[in-house]
Structures are given as C-alpha cells and as structure tokens.
Amino acid sequence: MNASLLLFIVVLFGAIYVFMILPQRRARRAQQELITKIGPGTEVITTGGLYGTVTEIEDGETVLLEIAEDTEIRIAKSAIVRAMPAPDAAESAEPADDDDHTDADTDAEHG
C-alpha cells in the first residue's frame, strides 16, 4: 500500500466519525438528559406525536401521560421526544403590547 492510499482511508474514517458518530452520540446524550429531567407536571411530546402532561412516573421506565381530561395512557419513558417549555417562560418570551399605541396613531402614521 502506498502512503497516499493509507492517508485517504484514515481521512475517510475520520470524516465518517465526525459527521455520523459524533452527532448520534450528542443526540443520545441530549435524549438521556431530557428523560432524567422529566417529572410530574411536565408537558411532553411522544415519538407518536401525542401531546400530554406527565402525571406520574411509575418505575424507572414507565410514565403515566394525561392526553385529555381524565384520560391517561402508560408509555415508556424512552418514547418521550421533547418537553414543552413551561407556560411562564412562553408568556415572558412574547413581546409586550404597547398600550400607548392605538389605532388612531396607526391611522395618522399611514395616512
């Protein structure tokens, strides 16, 4: 084998590692972190697209999820894909309404 072919193979394996294996590890680590932070009252989305609120963590791997009023389902913790932001955080992220700005001001600006 000549040196350039060996160098090409090493670079190819390095690129595969950087572009395929590292992102998968990061995603797996983020999923594990999400699962450990989930508790009762957390709004989540499952892999099947169900939105619900965690009502109870039964054992290490099972969660009761309320998907409608008085309707709970049992799912695997690993089926949770994303936690929804807390309602308080979502409200504070919205831009504040400008009470001084009225429709009359808008009409005066445009015409």
Characterize the overall form: rod-shaped
Parts with pLDDT < 50 across at least 5 consecutive residues? none
CATH architecture: Roll
By CATH, the topology is SH3 type barrels
Radius of gyration: 25 Å
* Topology pattern, helix = H, strand = E: HEEEEEHH
Largest sheet: 5 strands, antiparallel
The total number of structural domains is 1
Query: Can you give the helix content as a percent range?
Result: 40-55%
* Number of strand elements: 5
How much of the polypeptide forms β-strand, as a percent range?
A: 25-35%
Descriptive overview:
- The structure is a single chain.
- The chain is an alpha+beta fold.
- Helices cover 45% and strands 25% of the residues.
- It contains 3 helices and 5 strands.
- The chain has helices spanning 3-37, 87-93, 103-110, and strands spanning 43-46, 51-57, 62-68, 71-76, 80-83.
- It is rod-shaped and about 70 Å long.
How would you describe this structure in keywords?
25% strand, alpha+beta, SH3 type barrels, 111 residues, five-stranded antiparallel beta sheet, single chain
In short:
This protein has 111 residues and is of the alpha+beta class.
List the helices and strands and how they pair.
Layout: H1 3-37, E1 43-46, E2 51-57, E3 62-68, E4 71-76, E5 80-83, H2 87-93, H3 103-110
